[in-house]
Specification:
There is one protein chain. The chain is α+β, with helices and mostly antiparallel strands. It has two helices and five strands. A five-stranded mixed beta sheet has the order 1-2-3-4-5. The longest helix is centred in the N-terminal third of the chain and has 23 residues.
């Protein structure tokens, strides 16, 4: 594992932790972190009221190449939908589902966290 990869993974994990704190401060209950089903991974599964909230955390060191939230591909959405369906089935849930993105930009000079509710709509949910 090269050093850059390790540093990138730490940055990602740190950002996920910040997203969790942000959600908890906004009255979300965290149900799962890094939920894996087949080749899909959901960063955070949370609940607010009767809504199951699937959260994709995107972090970048700058917005120079576009906002972090613009990096969720249709392929990733499909995988997230699959994993979400599986989670709902095995936990026998009857809830509305929402897909959110928490976008974090941080570097020496800047820190911003943006929460986009209903950020995308996988078609096969």
């Amino acid at each position: 594992l090269n050093k850059n990869m390790a540093a990138h993974n730490d940055f990602g994990k740190e950002s996920e932790q910040e997203a969790v704190i942000y959600l908890e401060n906004n009255e979300y209950t965290i149900l799962e972190r890094n939920y894996i089903y087949q080749s899909a991974e959901i960063d955070i599964i949370a609940q607010k009221g009767n809504i199951l909230v699937i959260v994709e955390v995107k972090s970048r060191k700058s917005a120079y190449f576009g906002e972090p939230y613009s990096f969720v591909s249709p392929q990733k959405m499909k995988l997230l939908a699959k994993a979400t369906n599986h989670y709902i089935e095995i936990n026998n849930l009857d809830m509305e589902v929402r897909f959110d993105i928490i976008s974090i930009i941080k570097n020496e000079n800047e820190y911003s966290i943006q929460h986009l509710e209903d950020a995308f709509f996988p078609f096969n949910i």
